[in-house]
Amino acid sequence: MAVPFVACLALAARWNREPLGTVADPGHPGFALRDQTAESGIRFVHRRPTLDAKLANIEPHIAAVGASVAVTDVDGDGWPDLYFTNSRFGEPNALYHNRGDGTFDETAASAGLADLNRPGDGVSMGSIWGDVDNDGREDVLVYRYGQLALYRNVDGRRFEDVTEQAGLRRWVNSNGAIWLDYDRDGLLDLYVTAYFRDDVDLWHVSSTRIMHDSFEFATNGGKNLLFHNVGGGRFEDVTDRMGVGSTRWTLAAASADFDGDGWPDIYVANDYGPEELYLNDHGRRFVLAKAGLESESKSGMAVALGDAFNRGRLDAFVTNISERGYLFQNNNLRLNGMPEAGRFKNVADPQVADAGWAWGAQFGDFNNDGTNELFVANGFISADKGKSYWYSMSKIAGANGRLFEDARSWPAFGSTSLSGYERSRVYLNRGLAGWVDVAEKVGVSDDYDGRAVALADLRNRGAVDVIVANQNQPAVLYRDYPDSANHWIAFTLVGTRSNRSAIGAEVVIEATGLTQRRIIDGGMGFASQNDRRLHFGLGRREWVDRVVIHWPSGTTQMLQHLAVDRFHTVTEPRR
Amino acid sequence: MSDATRTSTATRNALERAWERASRFDPRYLIALLITLVLMAAQLRYHMVGGYERLLLTLAVCTATEALFSWFDRGKVVNLLSAYISGISLTLLLKPQGDALWPFVIGGVLAIASKYVLRYRDNHLWNPTNFAIVALLLVAPDRVSVLSHQFGNDVTTNLVIWTFGLIIAARVGVLHITLTYLLSFLLLNSVRAVALGQPVLPELAPITGPMYQLFVFFMITDPRTVVRGRRRQVAVAIAVAVAEALIRFASDRGWPLPIAFNAAPPLMALALVGPVAKWFDLRRASTAKRTDSLH
Fold this sequence. Notes:
The complex is a heterodimer of chains A (575) and B (295). Chain A has 575 residues and is mainly beta. Chain A is built from eleven helices and 41 strands. Chain B is mainly alpha-helical. Chain B is globular, with a radius of gyration of 20 Å. At the A-B interface, helix 1, strand 21, strand 22, helix 8 and helix 9 of A face helix 3, helix 5, helix 6, strand 4 and helix 9 of B.
């Protein structure tokens, strides 16, 4: 009897040491990601906020967000630009204008988009870009722990604050927002997620009872808001009418037509609670779906959409928290089975399930082989390497909600780290053979506290570059160098009946043995937004059989015989 | 006698009869009833099990191991209630990386096998679930964590479980152990908090969590591994609480302990103190028996 007993102990010890998933060497991943931040001229360093002294014991926790990055094309010159947010009073946000030669100029001050972190207004948490008035120039909404701010793009170089006129001057402690056209009227609507309640001013707290009241099922957070774009530069609050005012602690949202009915739905990742899927009922209202999400309560940090296994569907990858010995919440890779089964199915294998304290993530075909890889940023608070807050966290997490709802009850953070110094993950997709982390192999070795991840082809050369905004640390630009033998195709979409940015458009390509779907996002991941151009890797395929574009207006367009290794600009048919 | 008095007397008599009937049950049935209640509250209200396949697998492994080992050891299959209790405890407490199932298999085998392998004078020394969880946390901390947060962090669920738990502990005759540990925990951790200049409430807060519910009702009071005699049982409960307070003190000071100590202080304390106490208890009983037989 001692034999199986000892064997079990030995097996457990062995499995503890062995790498996760399959042990086979993935071989060459077919791409490299090189840190070229310095060469590109990006010198952005995020600064976290300082808060009311009454929150001092827990400030590192509350102030651990705000580093964001969004991709846009401010002046419509065909080269993607980058906008980073900062989160300390007086510290500027940064707009990096792409010069087209691999370098950037910082132009936020001249554009009027630098000085957005001011007492009374709050501090920036992120931005989303889209052509709100369909004038051909992308406007920007900056969400803050504080007032929302909408800036109209005047001439591609200067922006004007139109928050008041738009009816958006609202105090929302927000970590995320997305553009979507939920009623398909051709105008971008706005969904803003909220974290702390809207009566909380983190610089003048009247009560320290501002925290969540449950680690699993908290509903005492801020109320998410949906604003309908009524035209003429004005928005109206339709949250209650449309049924999307969740008061869970939402950290991220993404929109796509998950159930294939032609109307954009909303997927929400909540901290301290289960994910939520709001199905769009023909633009009349949203219905909270029972889609297999409600029974798993975790700490949703980000939601990225992508076609994980080339099924022609948009699946959802939701990041969560894992820490050895203490907590394995595990990331969710949810396969979209909405059209036939009305459910998502979590198929995350041990590799992608544990990326530490994971934040922003995006699907991208880094090697152009026709399948999506996953880039995941992670790490929460990197302070003293020798001190961890996890032991203190385990005490507070076991308490009654009334206790830890009060920020004063939390043990002081001091100089402790909490899941700090974690290295980013890059998961190579091997289909049924599972995912394998190739981060170090491809050149990703930073251990910053990653928050937002955005993807863009910054030099228009058929590669998916990665931009990571790190909390209280420098941003990083990884240039992608894919296998040069692989082909690619990319699309710039221009909406006519749909919103001009074509946000919400879904493109499905079909090439020999390959079907893949992508969406133009109006914000996706955590505090990030990707390139509006859609990039598809094709592997060795030298042609694309068919391209189907599902425009947000409901129009479906089919294209054939398109050349590969180039960008195609497609304008939506007017009829 | 008024109607109200008659009703009250009848109710009291019915309760007394129920109490008497309950006392005739094998205590393990009451304990099994309680843990089933905990399981149902955890799953139906908060979906805490993490998949029914975990529950079924762990129960299957625990009961099969018990049946096999008991048949091998004693030539017959013993009552499987204890394996059932271990199976449910493991399902609730183990939280593996990547939803892996192997920790439930290994944990189930370790829990039950420990009763047959780690023995002294024909008695096992560790509470099976306690041993399995501690062993997994020590040898596989990269793959296994222990449930440390609450079932929804609300009062109602806590009250239900504590009320039933205390009633059943009283009926099984181990309430003094539960209460001694509770009082020791509250006292020692208050002292520790004050000594370290920390707020007291967060230090007392973990006692309301599910890990402690399972600990005080199913581990430290396990009839097969507690020592004999009320006073000794009280002394051991205090010793466990002291060991836990020392572990927590070391964690507070940032001493480099294995992660199992920081993540599950009460489980580690019981795993260290319980078997030593049981060993001395068995040794003393055996010596006393020998002395009696000589006389």
